[in-house]
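Protein entry
_____________
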Amino acid sequence: MTTMTAAKKAKEMGRWTHEAETRFVEMWQQYPVLYDVTSKDYHDRVKKEKCWQEIAVDLELPVAELQLKAASLRTQYGKIL
């Protein structure tokens, strides 16, 4: 039997757990090109796609779902501010 990642378990349950969100955010922070508009590569779609793919492979989730979650977290953060 294989061990499922926290993010994959959360997906199967139909929601993200705090643990899965934390893991995702930690990985997301490793790639400033995905969120830092001052990054020289911020507008480089190829580099951004490569970063999303790396996160997706590690979390065993589709890129589209991760991008949707990232947008959701950014929105929540903006509302808190």
Q: What stands out?
A: The chain has a mean pLDDT of 89.
